[in-house]
């Protein structure tokens, strides 16, 4: 049997109830019984009265207790309400703190991530050189770049100048080839002298005579210049180049004039400014040596009977060659002087040959003097330097 069944059974048996209700019901029954009783003695009434007063006191005590219990319950309810409000406030503040803590946690995570990235970047930056040193290196590189740009511009200007000089030289060579072709086709009364002149003026014999003249006439001076400038070891290479150039000239005789001129210009304008400075300098020196050899060949061809060492022009050319080979500071000036002298001398030789041809052609055919012939062809007669 459960507790609920026991309580129900007791309530059914006890009709007066339990607790305070039963006490009040018993007090009321005894009071009514005492009031309607008639034959009770005074002692018995006193006893009943005392019982009634005791039960009444118990009821009053129970009532006061119940009232105090109610007050206490109300106070407890108020306290619990206050406590509930306090707990709600604490819960709200705790939630607010949790939200703030979450935000702070996100910020802290971001700060930690930034610190880690900062450490990694700091390690990478530490591996790199100092900013001041890098700035100094940048300034040095900028200066070098400026210097290289200036050098490039200078080389371009030199290249243009050399191109013009080579164009003039090619013009003189074309004039010389034309004159040699005219000489080979002309016939003179004296067949022996004409044959000798044709043999001397033909391109093949001129090339061979020029090579022999340069090798024989310049051996001592060239060796001396080579020992001073450190370029003597290129002699064989230069001789081979001269022979190759002469072979190329022999091939030009079998081609048209335009093709020969284009090949000559391409061969001469092969100078490159993109090479190293040492290679460019060496090529310039070798080109200057070839130009000087050509001038000396012209000297030998103009006066084959005389010694080339006794020629003032040859001595001046060799002196200029030694000068700009041994002194780097006077390179440009000496080269310009040598090229100007070469161009002037080539023009002089061309005009002299033309004058000699005209003089030979008109010799004995009229009464025109040498000066008149020179004036006719537009040539100024050279004066005696002494």
From TrEMBL:
It is found in: Nucleus. The keyword Coiled coil applies. InterPro entries: FMC1_homologue (IPR037667), THOC7/Mft1 (IPR008501). Keywords: Coiled coil, Nucleus. Residues 131-165 form a coiled coil. One of its GO terms (biological process) is mRNA processing. One of its GO terms (cellular component) is mitochondrion. The keyword Coiled coil applies. Belongs to the FMC1 family. This is Protein FMC1 homolog. It comes from Glossina morsitans morsitans (Savannah tsetse fly).
